[in-house]
Design brief:
Length: 255
């Protein structure tokens, strides 16, 4: 080997060592870079979740610190509905009902008196009714209900009680405008009957009935009666389930 060649080989090895070193450095930089990107991504994700948790409103599913998913809560237009009891009560119970529905009659006769006795009369809860008319021939009974409510909240509840107590067969077309006018005259004599007849005939409050139903649809109502306690759907419209729901929200309010 000549001296010149040996020198060239040395140079070549040095070049190779330098190249390897450079590559190592590049790899290290890439690794650091990736690490930084990952850290930033995690940070951004954490920030996003923290923020979305902070401003999630009551309409959306939220997760509490105990990790349990909370059921959906709906805010109903309470001040536009007939109210039984103290409207300022912290517990707000909503019934979606249909005046031709036999299960609603049963609810009103068997469950409502218990709720009234245990929670409404004491001022703890207020009870609201919203129309969810689906049974053929029930629209006029709902139109009459809304019309009477616009004449007076107390008159409305008299009608509500009386119409459920005198409910006809679900498959028969009993709730006609003529029947309703005569029925109201006998059972809620304070009502202005001429005004009522006009409101039924002209469907004056049809939009309110549609709006009630739309709210129900949005809140997941699938049948009647469906009960909500402070905007949260109660799985079954029985006394035990409603009582449990009321106790749950009152406990939450106290804590
Ligand atoms: Ca209504």
């Amino acid at each position: 080997m000549t001296q010149k060649k040996a020198g060239q080989n040395k140079k070549q090895r040095h070049k190779e060592r330098m190249a390897a070193k450079k590559k190592k450095q590049q790899i290290r930089m890439m690794m650091i870079g990736s690490f930084v990107v990952i850290i930033l991504a995690f940070g951004a994700a954490a920030l996003y979740y923290a923020n979305s948790g902070a401003d999630s409103d009551s309409d959306k599913l939220s997760e509490q610190s105990d990790g349990q998913a909370q059921p959906k809560k709906f805010d109903f237009p309470y001040n536009k509905q007939p109210v039984f009891g103290d409207k300022d009560a912290s517990v707000k119970i909503v019934e979606f009902g249909d005046y031709k529905c036999p299960a609603c009659q049963a609810f009103n006769q068997q469950v409502f008196p218990l709720i009234r006795n245990d929670f409404i009369d004491s001022g703890k809860a207020a009870f609201y009714f919203m129309n969810y008319s689906t049974i053929p021939g029930s629209l006029d009974a709902a139109l009459a209900a809304e019309a009477i409510f616009h004449q007076g909240n107390d008159m409305y509840w008299k009608y509500h009680e009386a119409i459920y107590d005198n409910q006809g067969d679900e498959s028969e077309d009993w709730a006609t405008p003529e029947f309703l006018a005569k029925f109201v005259k006998e059972n809620v004599p304070k009502v202005d009957i001429e005004q009522l007849k006009k409101n039924i005939e002209e469907q004056t409050y049809l939009e309110q009935i549609k709006s009630d139903k739309q709210k129900g649809v949005e809140a997941g109502v699938q049948g009647t009666p469906t009960i909500f306690v402070n905007g949260e759907k109660v799985a079954r419209a029985d006394y035990a389930s409603i009582k449990e729901a009321i106790q749950k929200v009152t406990k939450k309010n106290e804590s």
